[in-house]
Amino acid sequence: MTGTLIEEKNKIADTSIEKISKINRVFIAPSNARPAPGVLEAIQEAEAIVIAPGNLFTEVIPNLLIKNISRTIKESRAIKIYIGNIMTKPGETDDFTLSDHIKAIYEHANNKIIDYCIYDTGEVVPEFVRKYNKDGADLVEQDLQACRDLGIKLIPKNFSYIENDMVRHNPESVGDSIIELVCEDLKFRDLQNNPQYVRMNAKLKTNNEKRKEEEKVKNKEKRAQNKVNKKARRMDNRKKSKFSSKYNERIKSIKTSEEKRQEKIRKIEEE
User: Which of 93, 101, 87, 98 is nearest to 138 (CA)?
Assistant: First the structure.
């Protein structure tokens, strides 16, 4: 910490990297900024509040600094869900673990405003991790016990995927995870006949069936491609085998001819 105060959002990460210093705290100006009309009412009436993935200090936390937002989230009867980041952000969350992200949110919100954390269990292809490493980013370490110690209920989901060579959250998987949580909460409150539950549960079933069908198609395409690759390998091996056979025969022929030539020279010399 250098005591540097940065006043422009876009300069925060670059300045942090330049000064080799971690972000201590972020503020908004004016400090008494009020939420837009209807925001607090929407939070109070919500079944679920989602703190979505994004740059922690410049995209997620600033929303919680608006007057009365954090307090209203805390007091809301909605379930509060945090979607864990997959990769760190250079200049913002270098070396941050999953629990470090949550702690930073708690510190700025002055409240424990998270009930559940949905974190990624997917395996990011090493080649993409190395690409991020070159820019100073890395996979967020999932220190699950430290999260549990904060009172967080953890939900593992495989939602990472690659889009335009970037590691992203799969929006459909994240959306289904949230719907599933809300349905479980409604079921816990014995509200299975609630129109909202019926609607969301039907959507979840439809999405799951759709995903299963897509998975079947992908597996079918994968098997077909594997057959093509296997056939190509056999043909390649066959070609190599034919070439190798002809090549060995040619070498043997050249060797025999050379032996005969040397034998002929030797006889001439002896005469």
Answer: 87
Instruction: Provide DSSP, 117-154.
Output: EEEE-PPPPHHHHHHHHHTT--BPB--HHHHHHTTPEE
CB 197 within 8 A of CB 187: yes
User: Measured between alpha carbons, how far is residue 211 from residues 122, 137, 206, 218, 230 in Å?
Assistant: 16, 31, 9, 10, 28
CA distance 10 to 59: 11
Domains in the chain: ranges and CATH: 9-192 (3.40.50.10680)
* pLDDT number for residue 236: 67
Per-residue pLDDT at 82: 97
Contacts of 164 (CB under 8 A, 6+ apart): none
What is this structure's pTM?
0.72
Please give the C-alpha separations between residue 157 and each of 83, 119, 174, in angstroms, as whole numbers: 10, 6, 8
Alpha-carbon distance of 89 to 61, in angstroms, equals 14
Name the token pair of 134. Answer: 């070159």
**Residues lower than pLDDT 70 in the chain:** 1-2, 19-20, 214-215, 218-219, 221-222, 235-248, 250-251, 269-271
